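Can't paste images in this forum, so I'm doing it all in text. The chain is below; anyone willing to post the predicted structure tokens underneath?
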Amino acid sequence: MKKAKIFAILLLVVMAFTSCISGTNVTFHADQEGAEVFVDGELIGTTPVTMKISNGIWEDPDVLIKKDGFKDLRTGVTKELKGGNLAIGLLLNWPALLWVYGPKANQHYILTPEN
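Text version of the structure:
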């Protein structure tokens, strides 16, 4: 009975952490304020703007930054190893290892003038 309680508590802890580790709130910045930011073809707002992006190792969002008078910038997001996710995956829940490499919380872009 005691093992079942410990297992249940560990399962609840893992579930709580897993929901927190699945994504990162990412803020997009550009050297030109008010640039439009598109993620995977969807306008999310103008810089600076924040969006939650998955930490899934398979995720690689397409980012497009647009502003009048500047060349469109098509790029991706800079990623980093998520140490907390790695620890949870190794210690408690191996599926959490699928969310160990996600976007950095702050993304910075430099736009090039058209002329």
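The chain has a mean pLDDT of 86. The radius of gyration is 18 Å.
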